[in-house]
């Protein structure tokens, strides 16, 4: 009887233990599920934060790149201005030297006239018949002096008219601005944002184009026409721009990338400029370029323009 009671107790304890194990497993699974859900939410939030940070970094990189491009353009513009200043200083020095030579020449002429006794009485021409039979010596001297003074006045008046005519011609020439130049040789490695220098100048009325740096500087306000031609080699391509004060104003693509041939493309613009505005041709600052720019005897990469 006692043994039977012990078995019943053991059986009851076993059933109770199994029930407790089942409950424990359920609780454990619930806890694991809650922990997993909590971690999943944390991971999602962290991923969202990372995505936002990546977007911010991309925007910052784009801003930095745009600032770098702007800085490069400003540096290019400053370089152009420095070249212009050097050119102007050179022109000023040449003008000062020329004026000094003219002043020295004028002083020498005055000294020569003073050493010769000033203006001389010009002799009468053989065709000018004069009857001095009834004229006294005193009247003859007065008449000769009057004729000499008249001759001096006519000479000075003629010089003034000549100077006035010359001034008119110079003013007319000042209103005409035109130039034509091309590259004297191929550009083997132009690269991006490279200013093309057209160093062989054929026409430069108004002296507004500088063959040393490839810059045209508007001498007066007005409307101008500009045309540029770019030749690229076989299986090459390049993008070029016409730039006004570091701002792109016109653009062309010369492309023979897909064929075994040389291509030539011409671009043209009409622009209203103010005095001192700078115009030049450059390769594109960001678009790619492949190969050389050709300029030879039978085909020229050229730049020209004129004021309307």
UniProtKB/TrEMBL annotation:
Residues 172-308 form the C1q domain. GO terms for cellular component: extracellular region. Residues 1-19 form the signal peptide. PROSITE patterns: C1Q. It is found in: Secreted. Pfam families: C1q. Keywords: Coiled coil, Secreted, Signal. Residues 43-105 form a coiled coil. This is C1QL.
